[in-house]
Amino acid sequence: MHTARERPRIADLFAAEPDRLQRLTLDAAGLHLDFSKQAWSRAGFEAVLSWARAAEVETKRAALFAGEAVNVTEGRAALHTALRARDGEPQRDEVLKSRAAMRAFSEGVRSGRIAAADGKPFSHILHIGIGGSDLGPRLIWEALKPLTPGIGLSFAANVDPAEIAAALAPLDASRTLVIVVSKTFTTAETMANARAARAWLEARLGEPDTKKHLAAVSTNLEATAAFGIPAERVFGFRDWVGGRFSVWSAVGLSVATALGWEAFEHFLAGAAAMDRHFATAPLECNAPVLLALSNIYNRNGLDRRARAVVPYAQRLRLLPAFLQQLEMESNGKPADRSTAGVVFGDAGTNGQHAFFQMLHQGTDIIPVEFIAVRHASEGPPEQQAMLLANCLAQAEALMVGAKAKKLHRRFDGNRPSSLILLDRLDPASLGALIALYEHKVFVEGAVWGINSFDQWGVELGKALAGKILGELGSGGAGRHDPSTAALIERVRSHD
Ligand code: F6P
Prior knowledge:
The chain is built from 20 helices and eleven strands. By secondary structure, it is of the alpha/beta class. The site of 6-O-phosphono-beta-D-fructofuranose (F6P) has 14 residues, from loops.
């Protein structure tokens, strides 16, 4: 790899490498990807590709799809690909059974066959969950809800009482179905919000009718029964579905119901198309692999510590938040080299009026991933052209820059970016996009030598929160550092 001094400017690499555009752009599962504005020369690209080969990415990829125990610290498979495979392999019976149950429920609620306690159809679903049990469904709903008007869907995740209060305030209990989604059914935030929603239903409908307004999605069937959710309203899934990879499972029940089963099937099919591409394409022209390698090049080759993800699509504005969990919870782990960096972002063009100043002139170089959609599905068409023009202009400006005598007017340029282009934002392209990122995370984990499917780093904070909660209630004081002890005192003082 070149040193910073000898490294050619990105813009000059197009002349030096006549096949650059063709070599670094590709189409996969309906998405078009352009990695030619990354800082890698041919030699740099070959170097990170050789890291992938040395890390045996192809062997690890085969193990993932075959259902081997790739989640080594928890001794289990990570089979999100089976959930969207048409035939459900290699978990055929389980997947097809769960898909059929989801479909029957989704169609039953939409048709009114599965009705509220008063016999009338539900008009709204409240989805309660957090992390992987929230971010995926929320992203899909925000992205696709204009396509299929019908049942309303809203979410409550945070334990902050303000969120559940705001979620419940506009709802009519007699028309609302509450779906509690938690892989473990022990997550403190979700259980607190679920208890609040159950109490809200009971106060308005009475205890017996409340059961008809509750459903659950979980791997912990004992806990869902103990919570009082009738068995026929519980949708199970298995421990080989990782939380942040779970939107394809029954965790997607609320969106499958609100969007309609057909849309959800298209969503699964889009992801399955990306799976086929990832499983079969050679590494050097494999979309998730190139997305991963561009990040690895920036992270380990150039020591870039952050990356901006900017969807030029308002309906994808939650993508950065989704990716924060997918990438930082999966790959923010110790290894013998730098692993996941910070990922942040917001929808373009809004981000241009917030953090783009730093992207263009800041002292840290922050690679950018642009995501754009060619055709709008709503609104004035001339605004779509404005949106796309802005996206392309930003990527060009970052790379090319502009000369000026005065420092404040100078754009050094040579700032890397990639672009992912969707034809339309529809269920299939969204499925392909999410699967692209899931596999990108897997490839990074493979190269960095880490298990992308566990999250031990969240445990210490959870345990301490439980301890401090007890102390806030009891007035007792455990052992704490002086700062924390003083803050506990201040929080529980009555003045
Ligand atoms: O933040 C830790 C975590 O375990 C995530 O990995 C998971 O998505 C989230 O909590 C929610 O967990 P559950 O679905 O079990 O409620």
